[in-house]
Design brief:
With 117 residues, this protein is mainly β. The strands form two sheets. Strands 2, 4, 5, 6, 9, 10 and 11 form a seven-stranded mixed beta sheet that branches. Strands 1-3-8-7 form a four-stranded antiparallel beta sheet, with no helix packed on it. Strand 4 and strand 5 form a beta hairpin.
Length: 117
């Protein structure tokens, strides 16, 4: 059974930091690229960050470049999103996503991140 379980969300003040984790099981994690998406109320889902299956590449949305860092630990079947200098506009539900071009597209249930004073 495929599972992606996000953790580490919550409430943080503007300028603060959070680290999201996504623990994967039920598939060969090292064969999948990983993504973090987010969706704010009333807005479309946005791709925030991507990382290759062996971390050979990373990519970021312009809105988070220089503030967020995606990383992965294939030994722990976990992907991370380090979020620094958080802004109120970063408030959203964050989703972990595993995918590969040859087939396979799995999603976590999402976790709330709220940036507010």
């Amino acid at each position: 059974q495929v599972q992606l379980v996000e953790s580490g969300g919550g409430l943080v003040q503007p300028g603060g930091s959070l680290r999201l984790s996504c623990a994967a099981s039920g598939f060969t994690f090292s064969m999948y690229a990983m993504r973090w998406h987010r969706q704010a109320p009333g807005k479309e889902r946005e791709l925030v960050a991507s990382i290759g299956n062996v971390a050979a590449f990373t990519n970021y949305a312009d809105s988070v470049k220089g503030r967020f860092t995606i990383s992965r630990d294939n030994a722990k079947n976990t992907v991370y999103l380090q979020m620094n200098k958080l802004k109120p506009d970063d408030t959203a539900v964050y989703y972990c996503n595993a995918y590969r071009v040859s087939g396979g597209d799995f999603w976590g249930q999402g976790i709330q991140v709220t940036v507010s004073s």
